[in-house]
Design goal:
With about 260 residues, this protein is of the alpha+beta class. It is built from eight helices and seven strands; from the N terminus they run H-H-H-H-H-H-E-H-E-E-E-E-E-E-H.
């Protein structure tokens, strides 16, 4: 039996019979890219439930109930009824896109400390399985990559050296963020394990700093912090103990070069 993207959504939403769900799960697990997509979809579902489930228990406003009970006038021009239906459809579409935008920005909205680890984990899960398109600019063009990303983020960024931990830079890419672009660097060791560094400019919280934090997001370990005008998140499919010394190296490298002016 063949499956497609729709079956991944049905699996995550619990809409499949147990025997079919087992087959789809095996199909997803057999491909790293499908696993990454399923993980990202599952994160989106959790975020939507966390944000909107409470609204289900709120009473419907009386004016909306009254409007729903009032039938359209028999002599109402047909074009007005059609126009009303079109407006309703547009509102639904707009609401869907707003919900999508909220998911993309993370549960914390503009609270970078809250949204940063989950956004970084989603980006890690999506791009780490990629073979040919893991990055936009490869490590052999590191100078160009850093200059390009610094210009787009409007703050100096760099790719810390992690060779002492056995990881080499693969390259990087530009990602869309909540209110500004994001720099995304990828590293890989000889065993094929990958790490990603997610960097987002945060001028609204300039001079504000957060503690060095750790979170586990759907199997992805994330160390994150806010230092001066940027938020940073180092993600990897490693244990906390394995990722900690690498995160400390990244933190130290960025702090040292930041104080020296880049």
């Amino acid at each position: 039996m063949s499956f497609d993207e729709f079956d991944i959504h049905r699996l995550i939403d619990g809409e499949l019979a147990p025997d079919v769900a087992a087959e789809v799960s095996a199909w997803v697990a057999a491909d790293a890219a499908r696993m990454a997509r399923a993980q990202a979809y599952r994160m989106q579902r959790e975020l939507l439930h966390a944000r909107f489930d409470a609204l289900l228990n709120e009473p419907v406003p009386p004016r909306l109930l009254a409007a729903a009970r009032t039938p359209p006038a028999a002599n109402q021009p047909r074009f007005l009824r059609v126009a009303g239906q079109a407006v309703f459809a547009l509102v639904c579409v707009a609401g869907g896109w707003l919900g999508h935008a909220w998911v993309a920005s993370g549960a914390g909205g503009n609270d970078l400390t809250t949204s940063l680890p989950r956004r970084a984990a989603v980006a890690h899960a999506v791009y780490v399985p990629e073979v040919r398109h893991a990055v936009e600019v490869a490590a052999d063009q590191e100078a160009h990559l850093v200059q390009w990303l610094s210009k787009r983020l409007a703050v100096p960024v760099r790719a810390p050296a992690l060779t002492r931990h056995g990881f080499s830079l693969v390259g990087g890419r530009l990602l869309p963020g909540d209110n500004s672009p994001v720099a995304h660097f990828m590293y890989q060791n000889e065993a094929g394990k990958r790490l990603t560094l997610y960097v987002v400019a945060n001028p609204a919280n300039r001079h504000a700093e957060s503690a060095f934090r750790f979170e586990r997001v759907d199997g992805v370990s994330v160390f994150h912090w806010i230092d001066e005008s940027c938020g940073y998140a180092l993600s990897g499919n490693l244990s906390r103990e394995e990722l900690l010394p690498i995160a400390r190296t990244v933190y130290s490298d960025l702090e040292t070069h930041g104080k020296r002016g880049g």
